[in-house]
Amino acid sequence: MSRAPKPPQEPRFPLIGPAELAAPVPPVDFLIDGLWPAGSFGPWGGPKKSLKTYCASIASIAVAAGLPAFNHWRVPRAAPVIYFGGEGGRAMHARRLQRIARDVYGVDLGTLPFYLVTGVGPFNSREFREEVGEHIDALEPGLIVLDSLYNYHPAGIEAGNLYERGRMLSDLSHPLTEAGTALWVVDHFNKTGSDKGLDLDRLAQAGMAAWADSWLLLDHRTPARVGEGRFSLKADVGSRQWGGTTWEIDLDIGPFDPEAGAHTSPIKVSVDRAGSLAASGSPSGRLLSRDDLMALVIEAVTERPRRTRNAYLSDLAAEHRVGRERVKDAWAALAEDNALVAAPGKVPEGGREVTREVWEVGTRRVRKGRATRPDGAADKSSSPVPRAGPASKSTSPRRPTGKGG
Predict the structure, then answer these.
(1) What is residue 206's predicted lDDT score, i.e. its pLDDT?
(2) Cα–Cα distance for residue pair 99/267, rounded to 1 Å
(3) pLDDT digits (tens, 9 = 90+) for 365-379
(4) Distances 342 to 318, 339, 395 between C-alpha atoms, Å
(5) How many CA atoms lie within 13 A of 6 on its CB side?
(6) Residue 233 forms beta bridges with which residues?
(7) From CA 316, how far away is CA 311, in angstroms rounded?
């Protein structure tokens, strides 16, 4: 008995003709503006104690919430996130993620389309591929995070074999890219090679540099103050799609109290472009959060109302030794929500009085990205956040579905 003919398969190596190549192509679409393109894949790498997991968690929660990552990089639209946390278990991740959502973004983690997977196993296994494919079909995530790579590394593939590992990583990322899902792989630097600076070749195993479409590499600018929970980091951000930049990230996660079993102060984060004015400021100034700066702006305008914006920006940047752009960003958030209001007014200038736009405190306040009325009640209309579960699909654009392998 003859077998039924196999259905024709799509060609694996089709030709793309001149007319197709000449057709209009949309600009680069970003998952996080200036940080990571949508659907791109690559490592978040760094040495020991460089807070790779904290940084990946902070940025991925921003994606789920549709809020600026690290309170700095704009997230164009909220999207579901699946975080594979292979180290520490559910409770540890939940504690960290809840703190980040609350302290950094002022949101309730339970309202976000953010999903954690704590199971580990090789990502080339049939079980992994099938379950990831089901998750993609159900949630249409904008981002999947694999933390850390060694928890999911397939057995039998040598760490130093460039060709085997390159193919292995491509097999992981290709179906996600086809589904429109970005992939972050958290990986460790080699103990040797620190003289190379922030370089993809410092990642622990072969093939990563050749495979990566985008990357974020962390290192210490100064020795970590682990007991105090303070970390001054340098971040090299790069992509084959758009180029790259270097940033300085300061994280204060607070000291840990063993008796209480918890950190004793909220998380603070500060981001500045490397070499900016803020980079030369004092550590205490750099660790002022966006919310701290907004509070300082309100205090300054309350104490000395009806001055120009430039006068306030210059004074605050000099007094607190932070970058003028950071103060300007805090000011813009307050003005957008009418926490600061402007009107024409007389100010001294060049020995005479001239009419300029002067500022006063308005009727509303901004706290952690959420507007509040003078009575302190939250104004929920100011920062819409997608709900978790199937309803979250309406908050992000549709992506083509597809199996994870």
Answers:
(1) 54
(2) 7
(3) 554 444 333 333 344
(4) 23, 10, 34
(5) 3
(6) 220, 249
(7) 9
65, with CB counted inside 10 A (0-12, 13-18, 19+), is buried
Which H helix or E strand runs over 128? helix 126-139
For residue 83, which of 98, 65, 61, 101 has the smallest C-alpha distance?
Answer: 61
The label of the residue with tokens 């209001």 reads 341
For the chain, the domains span: 30-214, 290-382
Topology (CATH level 3) of domain 30-214: Rossmann fold (3.40.50)
350 burial type by CB count under 10 A (0-12 exposed, 13-18 middle, 19+ buried):
exposed
Q: Where are the alpha helices (DSSP H) in 220-289?
A: 283-286
Give the pTM.
Answer: 0.69
Task: Quote the tokens at residue 373.
Answer: 């009325």
- How far out from the chain centre does Cα 161 lie? 31
What is d(CA 312, CA 314) in angstroms, rounded to the nearest whole number?
Answer: 6
Continuous segment of H or E residues that includes residue 340? strand 340-349
Neighbours of 391 (CB within 10 A): 10
**pLDDT score at 23:** 96
Q: HSE-up of 203 (CA within 13 Å, CB side)? A: 29
Which pLDDT score, from 0 to 100, does residue 164 have? 79
On the question of pLDDT at 316 being above 50, the answer is yes
Q: Which fold, 290-382?
A: Arc Repressor Mutant, subunit A (1.10.10)
Tell me what pLDDT residue 202 has: 61
- Per the document, the length of the chain is 405
**3 state DSSP class of 269:** strand
Strands 114-117, 81-85: pairing is: parallel
H helix runs in 250-378, sequence order? 283-286, 290-303, 309-320, 324-336
pLDDT tens for 233-260 read 999 999 999 999 999 999 999 999 999 9
Sign for the pseudo-dihedral over CA of 167, 169, 172, 177? negative
